């Protein structure tokens, strides 16, 4: 089986990007090790702090964030990093070619129940127009040069794209290396599976309710087929399932918090997952536009997310546009 770096060389990925992914995989192994030690490593539970998103931070949110930040900022190709857990960006090397945005620990509520979590990353080129500070990160997702995630599940997997398809690597813990286990992920265009947090039903817009009602109606309803539902409560694990066997994943607009109708973050969750899904032949939409075309206004911006099997995303959008 192919190792990570030789695969990247074969794909003619730029040396700087290879260096960044190498740094990320070192972090991934460290986080994976600590997670698998669980309570034995004393890393479970919450801190007393709140992050910029208004969420209580778990010890592992803080630990993973610190690890990623420290090690990425030692890489000479990294100009700056932005994190879900940090209010502002943190600068690295002045002549670094890349910006790295990350969600250090996705699915934090799963940590204490020994369930799936991940790390999501998005790499953008450093703009050459003299912009500075967090403005540098405000580029549409289509500008990403690499994006992916690490899934800490029963096995630890590194899944990423550099724009040449989606590659999957699995951590071989006996040798401590990521080995290529799927060269080219493809999401089937049709599906009978969806993922949404159903407990928010009452908060959705009526068109989204109608779409879900019709999925639930099964083969005697307007969709004429039965749908299955899954919700892992970690986007990284739900998207991984979509990449493996298709499906529709959504965290749609809801009216729980006036003025804050979305949950997922564009830079750390929406863009990297949209890039992967599109590279695997699927679709990723905010409900208003293609996610990768959104011009970000600030680094912690939140958006609606509807992604997965192309035909099902299109069907969902046709409901949202009021054609049902
Ligand atoms: P994070 O743990 O990085 O803050 O992200 C959690 C996100 C996402 O991973 C997941 O799909 C969603 O929140 C789960 O939301 P619910 O708790 O509403 O199910
Ligand atoms: Mn969080
Ligand atoms: Mn997250
Ligand atoms: Mn997180």
Automatic annotation (TrEMBL):
Q: Where do the Fructose-1-6-bisphosphatase class 1 C-terminal domain residues begin and end? A: 187-320
Query: Which terms under GO biological process does the entry name?
Result: fructose 1,6-bisphosphate metabolic process; fructose 6-phosphate metabolic process; fructose metabolic process; gluconeogenesis; sucrose biosynthetic process
Any one GO MF term held by the record is:
magnesium ion binding
Which SUPFAM superfamilies did the record assign? Carbohydrate phosphatase
Pfam families, per database record: FBPase (PF00316), FBPase_C (PF18913)
> Which superkingdom does the taxonomy of this entry point to?
Bacteria
Enumerate the residues binding Mg(2+) 1: 84, 103, 105
Cellular component, GO annotation: cytosol
The residue ranges crossing the membrane are none
Positions bound to Mg(2+) 2? 103, 106, 269
Q: In which pathway does it act?
A: Carbohydrate biosynthesis
Note whether Membrane occurs among the keywords.
no
Reactions listed under catalytic activity: beta-D-fructose 1,6-bisphosphate + H2O = beta-D-fructose 6-phosphate + phosphate
Keyword annotations of the record: Carbohydrate metabolism, Cytoplasm, Hydrolase, Magnesium, Metal-binding
User: Which compartment or compartments is the protein found in?
Assistant: Cytoplasm
Binding residues for substrate, per the UniProt record? 106-109, 197, 263
Ranges for domain Fructose-1-6-bisphosphatase class I N-terminal come to 14-183
Record EC number? 3.1.3.11
Q: Does the keyword Magnesium apply?
A: yes
Q: Which cofactor does it need?
A: Mg(2+)
Q: How is the cofactor bound?
A: Binds 2 magnesium ions per subunit.
Tell me which family the UniProt entry assigns to this protein: Belongs to the FBPase class 1 family.
Quaternary structure (record)? Homotetramer.
Q: What is this protein called?
A: Fructose-1,6-bisphosphatase class 1
Identify the species of origin: Pseudidiomarina homiensis
Instruction: Name the gene that codes for it.
Output: fbp
